[in-house]
UniProtKB/TrEMBL annotation:
Pfam families to which the protein is assigned, alphabetical: Peptidase_M19 (PF01244)
Catalysed reaction equations from the record: an L-aminoacyl-L-amino acid + H2O = 2 an L-alpha-amino acid
Signal peptide as annotated in the record: 1-22
Keyword Ribonucleoprotein: no
Cofactor(s) for this UniProt protein: Zn(2+)
Organism in which the protein naturally occurs: Kwoniella newhampshirensis
Protein name according to UniProt: Dipeptidase
Presence of the UniProt keyword Metal-binding in the record: yes
Length: 452
């Protein structure tokens, strides 16, 4: 799309008066970033940006690498040897090293069931393939770590990230994008946590039994999803999930959620919350960005949640008509003006977006963002926080809550609309697999059920 002076003026008029989510539609193609070799945004600050990247870890909280590996390879593990040469998308190891990336959350996810023609119905009874997709993504990450022991290091805690940085290795962490990947089970959540999942995004672009989504993700018109839950926020089942996440020390991620889900989660979470890949709605009016009234709930003041907003690099969410590094920092600065500079960070959404901003086309371009912060006068300590220091502090606070809850037993709660428990069908033909006293219980349960 050729951007004319008139179209830019129109875009400016929209951004100064964000009253609806109609400012961008798929028919208006975003600016496509030029994926050329790295060119410093502010050449006189190049050396200084490199010094900071060598001194402090830069952490990206959202890279959809497993999804790319699964999308283009019949045998996704075939991608692993290519990651240290060149791989399609925004991420591979050589580019990460050139860009000074020190830590990356690789996401394990599954498409929302509607994306492949599955109707979960009003009870959100997910197809079990979602768990398979998530587990296969986790398996990909673990096998990638095993293949590159001298380059990558598995991390779960803030100290793990620091240790990897001191060894000159890329710290690799994992997050789950969307609670549809839990298949309505807290047991599944606990197993994911054991396998290394460090945050759970409460929704992706679909509602779940736990929470309401804002929709409006990549490739959409930017319109919100019709509500399905009372209040369009967390469900009572979702509140149970929040408490279990706190107990496990898994971060609560509010990117993609409805505004009310975010408010509810902040109210119920005993630990800091995160937005792993979002922007500021006041800067660009898109439902995937965070409104000011929700941002005002984050900070260091009385009654505020000490969470963090990690700024995305998708041009559609930043400003599809002026998608630049400077515009990304506009988002960061606006968010910081409300939550404080110690509550902002970086979450690209690389490998999950069709168009990154110009100057941040892939993981090799992180110095440009550091240069823009330097250009605007951010202090070294503030830039250290944006790069990863703020996130590491939040991770430590989440770990502290886990420690405080160490005597709290796992939640025994089961999704009330599940139809597979009690598991009478497991008794086999004529209940031949059951002991006689178990048969008596099952017969009585079936009798009572039939009478209802």
């Amino acid at each position: 799309m050729k951007v004319t002076a008139l179209s830019l003026l129109s875009a400016l008029a929209i951004t100064t008066a964000p009253t609806a989510f109609a400012s961008y539609t798929p028919a208006q193609q975003p600016l496509q970033a030029d994926p050329s070799e790295y060119v410093p945004l502010h050449p006189h600050l190049e050396a200084r940006s490199r010094e900071l990247l060598a001194k402090y870890p830069l952490i990206d909280t959202h890279i959809d690498l497993p999804a790319t590996m699964r999308t283009i390879h019949r045998q996704p593990m075939d991608a692993i040897p290519k990651l240290n040469v060149s791989h399609p998308g925004h991420f591979d190891i050589p580019r990460a090293k050139r860009g000074g990336l020190a830590g990356a959350f690789l996401t394990a996810n599954a498409p929302c069931p509607g994306a492949y023609g599955r109707d979960v119905g009003p009870d959100f009874l997910n197809p079990t393939e979602t768990v398979q997709h998530v587990l296969e993504s986790i398996d990909l990450v673990k096998n990638t770590l095993a293949y590159y022991p001298s380059l990558l290091k598995a991390a779960k805690t803030a100290d793990d990230v620091r240790q990897a940085f001191s060894e000159g290795k890329l710290a690799v962490l994992m997050g789950l994008e969307g609670t549809h990947g839990l298949s309505n089970s807290l047991s599944t959540l606990r197993m994911y946590a054991e396998l290394g999942i460090r945050y759970v995004t409460l929704t992706h672009v679909c509602h779940t039994s736990f929470a309401s989504s804002n929709g409006g993700g990549a490739g959409t018109s930017g319109s919100t999803l019709p509500p399905v839950h009372p209040g369009n926020g967390l469900t009572p089942w979702g509140i149970t999930l929040i408490r279990e996440l706190n107990r496990l020390g898994v971060m609560v991620d509010l990117s993609h959620t409805s505004d009310q889900t975010a408010r509810d989660a902040i109210r119920h979470s005993a630990a800091p919350v995160v937005w792993t890949h979002s922007g500021a709605r006041e800067v660009w009016n898109h439902p995937r960005n965070v409104p000011d009234d929700v941002l005002s709930l984050i900070g260091d003041g009385p009654g505020q949640n000490g969470g963090i907003v990690l700024s995305v690099l998708f041009s559609t969410f930043i400003d599809p008509y002026n998608a630049t590094v400077a515009r990304v920092v506009d988002h960061i600065e606006h968010i910081a003006s409300i939550v404080g500079k110690n509550h902002v960070g970086l979450g690209s959404d690389f490998n999950g977006i069709s168009a990154a901003v110009k100057g941040m086309e892939d993981v090799s371009k992180w110095p440009n963002l550091i240069q823009e912060l330097l250009y605007r006068g951010w202090a070294e300590s503030e830039i250290q926080g944006v790069m990863g220091g703020n996130l590491l502090r939040v991770m430590e606070e989440v770990e502290k809550v886990k420690l405080e809850l160490r005597d709290t037993p796992p939640s025994p709660a089961i999704y009330e609309k599940r139809r597979d428990l009690p598991a009478h069908e497991w008794g086999g033909p004529n209940m031949a697999y059951l002991a006689p006293d178990v048969v008596k219980i099952v017969v009585e349960q079936k009798r009572l059920r039939d009478e209802l």
